Amino acid sequence: MTDGNYHHWGDRLFRGLTATFAFGVAFLFLALVFVLWRESRPAIAQFGLSFLTSPTWNPVTINFGALIPIVGTLISTFLALLFAIPISLGIALFLAELAPHWLRAPFGTAIELLAAIPSIVYGMWGLFVLSPLLADHLQPWLQKCSGGLPLFAGPTMGIGMLTAGLVLTLMIIPFIASVTRDVFLMVPVHLKEAAYGMGCTTWEVVRDIMIPYGKKGIAGAVFLGMGRALGETMAVTFVIGNAYHLSWSLFAPGNSIASTLANEFTEADGTVYLASLIELGLVLFLITFVVLGLAQLWLRQGQQGGGKG
Amino acid sequence: MNVTSRRIMINKIVLTLSGMAALLGLFMLAWILGDVAVKGFSAINWQFFTELPAPPGTIGGGLANAIVGTLLMTLTAALIAVPFGVMAGTYLSEFGRETALGKVARFISDILVSAPSIVIGIFVYLVLVKPMGHFSGWAGACSLAIIMLPVVSRTTEEMLRLVPHEMREAALALGAPYWKMMTGVIYRAASKGIFTGVILAVARVAGETAPLLFTCLNSPYWMHSMNEPMANLTVVLFNYAMSPYDDWHRLAWGAAFLITMAVLIANITTRLLLSGGKRRLS
Predict the structure, then answer these.
(1) Average pLDDT over residues A180-196
(2) Average pLDDT score, chain A
(3) Are B121 and A32 in contact, with CB atoms under 8 Å apart?
(4) Can you tell me the distance from the alpha carbon of B61 to that of A88, in angstroms, rounded to the nearest whole number?
């Protein structure tokens, strides 16, 4: 379809113009990485690789290490995925197979609307509604049941790693669930019917046909949710507690890369402090780039030749 | 228990769990929206829309400047991102399906859609705020535009691809050059879809906070131009919610109510407009 009359000067201009803007998108990305790298050089020069492994973050002595925010980002994301994956798969299964047909569209829309709520509203709700509930009910109960497990030790304040993980769970469910639903819907009907014809139950069709067939797409959906959770800023900043210490307890306040940036960026004085924050941003961007890149790759492969991979 | 009844029971358990997961999702949506509606609606009154913020402890006060600031910056962002995104989307759909540039731009767009918005805020701070020496509404609008751009370009691409081949062939067969076919026929045919994509992108950035923290900052006053720090609903919401004052918490819930309603109405309207078409996440 692109073999129209390219010799027309207007067409060459049109094509050139649109190509320039498409290039602009790619350029923007390169510029982003380059500028972040250039501006974080003072920190890279001073701390080198120990930036990634040092647990010290001290603006007074100008000694910065990113270990605590990085670990906080990973733990909160891990918690979110732990809760969100089974729930999202359940929702996707319900929307693709179980719900009566008239219910599928409105129910699907309702789940996707969870993704439309701004993240700052999640944060505010997490701080004012969810965290008091956790502090008064769930956390004391967990402490009582677990019998002094270090994971649930410490004062029950309601804010901290667990709360951040729970809020992130809510925020990534719609992404994982709706993409997984689409993956389930792409499974050819004749495969499912063949399995049903052999007497399989719905669960056996899901376990042995739909999940294996859509495994790349589902992995893509999970990584899409992971990318979202890693970079989520406002919701986490409200509820994570913003404290610099490592703890085994999920009740303890912590920090994530994004929340550190949100809290300290405008207050940073001094070249090295600012450069350290920018390097933190660069680290976050590179991590999410890899995760989201894998997500796109798998989602695309899942669409093209589902089941073959 | 024999094998068959065990299989049936496992099936029942899994299906029940699946239904419960779906109900949980619906319940959480209703819970959050219900809290925002109940706590936010009581904060909404005439003063909320017409007055400037008041110091804590003072009766009254509103978020008029923040509402105007958010509208101004979102509109400016759309004016930058829509032409840019539509042109880039046109390349992806018409010329760049198999070219290297097309593949790279498409891949990067898909990643930027989900990239952490706070990093985009840092980027705009470094290239605009730092050289200019001050925070500004322009910088805020630019960071929102960067977030909108990939959404607009990917939606445009998808919507242009939905236009049937026959329409292109008919226009080309009449002797129209390619650009004339695009502007006269294809954009028109895809206009509804592109429009809804733009609305969804606007709705998305209207609730963004992280990129504005370092670009337009905030201000308790009316703005005189886009070239100064500007009040906006989301950053005010953040500051007020984190403050220790009950009055400010009330206003923060009001702001949350306003933003959430706007975003939800935009989402639901575009879905109704596009019903029958492809559903997608905002």
Answers:
(1) 94
(2) 91
(3) no
(4) 42
pLDDT in tens, B5-60: 999 999 999 999 999 999 999 999 999 999 999 999 988 889 889 888 888 777 77
Top pLDDT among A99 and A5 is at A99
Q: Which residues of B142-153 are buried (b: 16+ CB within 10 A; e: fewer)?
A: bbbbbbbbbbbb
Element (H, E) at B113: helix B100-114
With cut-offs at 50, 70 and 90, classify the pLDDT of residue B282. very low
Max intra-chain CA distance, chain B: 79
Pairing of strands A57-58, A63-64: antiparallel
Instruction: Examine the pLDDT at A307 and tell me if it is beyond 50.
Output: no
Q: Which residues of B touch A86 (CB under 8 A)?
A: 21
Tens digit of each residue's pLDDT (9 = 90 or more) over A201-250 = 999 999 999 999 999 999 999 999 999 999 999 999 999 998 888 888 88
Beta bridge partners of A254: A241
Return d(Cα A70, Cα A255) in angstroms, integer.
8
Report the C-alpha gap between B176 and B154 in whole angstroms.
26
Q: Do A175 and B119 touch (CB under 8 A)?
A: no
Residue B27: strand, helix, or coil = helix
CA dist list (Å): B218 to B39, B127, B137, B229: 24, 19, 9, 6
Question: Nearest to residue A154, comparing CAs of A219, A216, A241?
Answer: A241
Contacts of A110 in chain B (CB under 8 A): 25-26, 29
Query: 10 Å Cβ neighbour count for A38?
Result: 11
List of chain A residues whose C-beta atoms are within 8 Å of the C-beta of residue B91: 15, 18-19, 21-22
Whose tokens are 């691409």? That residue is B157
Complex ipTM:
0.92
Q: Which stretch of DSSP H or E encloses residue A11?
A: helix A9-39
Do the Cβ atoms of A72 and A258 come closer than 8 Å?
no
Report how far residue B206's alpha carbon sits from residue B262's, in angstroms, rounded to the nearest whole number.
Answer: 9
